[in-house]
Amino acid sequence: MERKEEIQGLESPLIPNKKVIESKKGLEGIKKDDILTELKKQLSLAGPIIAVNLLLYCLQVISVMFVGHLGELALSGASMATSFASVTGFSLLVGMGSALDTFCGQSYGAKQYHMLGIHKQRAMLVLLLVSIPLACIWANAGHILVFLGQDPEISAEAGSYARFMIPSIFAYALLQCHVRFLQTQNNVFPMMLSSGFTTLLHVLICWILVFKSGLGNKGAALANAISYWINVILLAIYVRVSPSCKNTWTGFSKEALHDIPKFLRLAIPSALMLCLEIWSFEMMVLLSGLLPNPKLETSVLSISLNSYTMVYMIPLGFSGATSIRVSNELGAGRPQAARLAICIALSLVVTEGILVATIMILGRKFWGYCYSTEEMVVRYVAEMMILLSGSHFVDGIQSVLSGIARGCGWQKIGAFANLGAYYLIGIPVGVLLAFVYHIGGKGLWVGIIVALFAQALFLSIITLCTNWEKEANKASDRVYGPMIPVEASLIN
């Protein structure tokens, strides 16, 4: 009897045992306290993540706002360069970095703390290498934009802006790795503080470089790079000196050079999953330039996209929280807790979607005045806000479902779902409504709504058909490898 108890004491409860896992089917054992605890966890994660997303987004917005005071050409060039940088660089790095949601999140749940540092180093290496060809693309942005049929004068201005943004791409790659590393271990407040400090400092840096240095719009691009590097350095110092990271960051290791193909097998689909979605929105703005009265259509769609992106930071925060909670619980071998996290996350995002959509509809007649004083533009924006409110509600649901996919490691499935939803369904519907039925920009945005609905439907079916006990076992295989080493069973 004593021998049996000794053996049981050596077995880590964090290593998924199929017999244990399969006995935890359903949510019938969930108590009210469990629901409240999970709710508090998600809100405490989502709040800071929303703040970080908004603050990082504001860096680009602040730079463009400063450039706007230099003239119409400078503003057009900076706006085009910012969009180009997002499509060809930032979105790709965010997507590849989100593979850490799976690797770090599940390793943290399994209490394989040292592996978080290894995964982060591996991601840093890969993303920095990827940044090199992206920097070459940015260096030739002006020529590429002219080749794509854009105005030569604006393209030249955008190319100059993009070249001065090149240092920011390497900082952004490292920033994504640090952010994912910290948030997967539920350590989100340092990110919020560093992003807040950086954003405030960015205003001063922009003012100096744009108006005082003589660099003009190039100064705004350089300010982006400086601010991103400041943010990275602050987080790197925190990781190095903070007691909360002493187990997850143990210094640089050659182990990070191993299993790079394994990281890429998740990172590439992760990038495709995100980029396919972002590119479709940008494509709608480009297509609006082919409509009758292209100046009005492009302006309104750009206003709509900017407004939509800012509001989208809220469900994006819930998506990040969902990814963390699901990956942590699966890594810990608790599929029932992962299912509870999913239910809570969907309830939160549906509530948020209803509230925000209602506000957007009620304020639709006034929002346009924030961007223009022309009555035609204001009225058109008011009409678009109704569509935006509907798309925000659906997009919130798909964001949480995408967070579930990242937490489980379903990025390849998510990439195929997005490919089908946006490029086989949504964009064709938008083009048909805009150009065949002559609904204009509203038709293009209806296509986006259809795509979001299809994406949410595909991911919902996958989530509903999932065997969570098997997902916990897959997480165990991902954390420990095909065979759990003897040392792993002796932890704790």
Fold and architecture overview:
By secondary structure, the protein is an all-alpha fold. The protein has one domain. 81% of the residues lie in helices and 0% in strands. The chain contains 19 helices and no strands. Helix 13 packs parallel to helix 16. The chain starts with a helix and ends in a 12-residue tail after the last helix. The relative contact order is 0.13. The N terminus and C terminus are likely disordered. It holds the Pfam family MatE. Belongs to the multi antimicrobial extrusion (MATE) (TC 2.A.66.1) family.
Nearest-angstrom radius of gyration? Answer: 23 Å
Number of domains: 1
Can you tell me the overall shape? globular
Determine the strand fraction and express it as a percent band: under 5%
The counted number of beta strands is 0
Portion in helices: over 70%
How far apart, in Å, are the first and last alpha carbons?
22 Å
Mean pLDDT: 87
SS-based class: mainly alpha
Q: Mind describing the biggest β-sheet?
A: none
Looking at how many chains there are and whether they match, the oligomeric state comes to single chain
Query: Regions with pLDDT < 50 over 5+ consecutive residues?
Result: 1-25, 482-492
Order of helices and strands: HHHHHHHHHHHHHHHHHHH
Number of helices: 19
Membrane topology: Multi-pass membrane protein
GO molecular function, one term: xenobiotic transmembrane transporter activity
Subcellular location: Membrane
Keywords: Membrane, Transmembrane, Transmembrane helix
